[in-house]
Design goal:
The protein has 2 domains: 9-154 and 217-367, Alkaline Phosphatase, subunit A (3-Layer(aba) Sandwich), CATH 3.40.720; 156-204. The protein has 10 helices and 12 strands. It has helices spanning 31-36, 63-70, 89-98, 109-117, 163-177, 185-204, 221-233, 255-279, 347-358, 364-367, and strands at 9-15, 25-26, 48-51, 56-58, 74-81, 127-130, 146-148, 241-246, 286-292, 311-316, 323-325, 345-346. The strands form 2 sheets. Strands 1, 5, 6, 7, 8, 9, 10, 11 and 12 form a 9-stranded mixed β-sheet that branches. A 3-stranded antiparallel β-sheet has the order 2-4-3, with helices on one face. Strand 3 and strand 4 form a beta hairpin. Helix 5 (163-177) runs antiparallel to helix 6 (185-204) and helix 7 packs parallel to helix 8 (255-279). The radius of gyration is 21 Å and the shape is globular.
Length: 377
């Protein structure tokens, strides 16, 4: 149930709400960008240039990510999306989670990854989510996933004061789920879920006591979640796939104030997490992948930006071949899709890269077909 230093680990960060691609990787040399965004546009003088030839740069709030990019640790995947883009948060995120653009999927792509990494479900901690609930990307019948809000208080029936009382309650909990096996698929699933929760809680409770670090994380939800991931990852509990989210990216209004704060929190959290991995000598086998469900419209609405298409994703870490990947979408009026950026990189090919070239699995059954991969790892 322990991992070795050679086991590749994937950490997925979901930027929830539709991160504004144009204000994240800014085409500062394109006059059409500035004309389209008189309210929320990033001034060219403020941008952190990353590709002078293409006239692209990072939002100034991404200073720490820029440092990692300059060190060759960040791959920027431009124009990412899927055919016939959907501008609904729920439907678009569902597509990203299941790799099913044409129908409502029932299996999460990372659930399939966890299944293939641990086909007999020997380790209930192969997949760990930090945040409330379980992302659909990790959901798959028969695949256990631990979902942790706060690691230090994670467990079953932790609200019961007094160890004897809690022990009795846990015994009742365990006996309540045990008889469900063999009573049908639904009861089998519930029974296994209950037993997995007990087992996962018992194992995870040791992780905080095993962790020390010289890195001081910010007091933000994304930073605290990434630190929680670091605690589990460095405890060598066999976890291979981690997931967390940063919300707030649905910037219809007040984007000029809200969006830089979000990006800054993300940038600092990722930088601290990477530094923590380096301190613990595990950075060489961890890849961070950050994505969002869609980009925003090219033209601002006077206060923010509305739902669009065509987005950006990041792969970050020591195993990453840094640089710009994919073509930055054209802002020319005739190249837009109903006023939005056109995608040119199918996200399923990027998932395929992570699955096949990083985790060493067969990508086709996980992403639902063969899609062009990008060699950024």
């Amino acid at each position: 149930m322990t991992t070795t230093s050679k086991d590749p680990i994937l950490v997925v960060v979901q930027l929830t709400g539709g991160n504004d691609y144009l204000n994240t990787v800014v085409p500062f040399a394109d006059g059409r960008y500035h004309d389209s965004r008189p309210t929320v546009g990033v001034p060219a003088a403020d941008v952190l240039p990353v590709d002078g030839r293409l006239g692209l740069g990072f939002n100034p709030a991404l200073a720490e990510v820029k440092d990692l990019y300059d060190a060759g640790k960040v791959a920027v995947i431009n124009g990412i999306g899927y055919p016939a883009p959907n501008r609904s948060h729920f439907r678009s995120m569902d597509i990203w989670h299941t790799c099913e653009p044409e129908k409502v999927g029932t299996e999460g792509w990372l659930g399939r990854v966890i299944r293939d990494l641990d086909p007999h479900a020997d380790n209930v901690l192969t997949g760990v989510n930090f945040g409330r609930g379980l992302p659909r990307a990790m959901a798959l019948t028969g695949v256990p996933v631990a979902s942790v809000a706060i690691l230090e208080t994670y467990g079953v029936l932790t609200g019961i004061q007094g160890e004897p009382e809690r022990s009795k309650a846990l015994d009742i909990f365990a006996r309540m789920y045990s008889p469900t096996v063999g009573l049908g698929a639904t009861m089998d699933y519930l029974g296994q879920t209950g037993r997995d929760a007990l087992k996962g809680a018992d194992i995870l409770k040791a992780a905080p006591d095993m962790y020390t670090s010289g890195v001081e994380y910010a007091d933000t939800s994304i930073a605290q979640n990434l630190q929680g991931i670091a605690k589990v990852l460095t405890a060598n509990l066999g976890a291979r796939v981690f997931y967390t989210q940063q919300g707030g990216y649905d910037t219809h209004a007040s984007e000029a104030a809200v969006h830089p704060k979000l990006l800054g929190d993300f940038s600092r959290a990722v930088s601290d997490f990477y530094a923590d991995l380096r301190e613990h000598d595990v950075a060489d086998h961890v890849v961070i992948f950050a994505f969002t469900e869609f980009g925003r419209r090219v033209k601002d609405n006077g206060s923010g930006t509305d739902h669009g298409s065509g987005g950006v994703a990041f792969a970050i870490g020591d195993p990453v071949r840094g640089g710009m990947y994919g073509e930055y979408p054209s802002l020319a009026e005739g190249d837009l899709v109903e006023g939005d950026l056109a995608f040119n990189t199918d996200f399923r090919g990027i998932y395929g890269t992570l699955v096949e070239q990083w985790l060493g699995l067969d990508a086709k059954p996980i992403v639902g077909g063969s899609f062009e991969q990008v060699e950024f790892v």
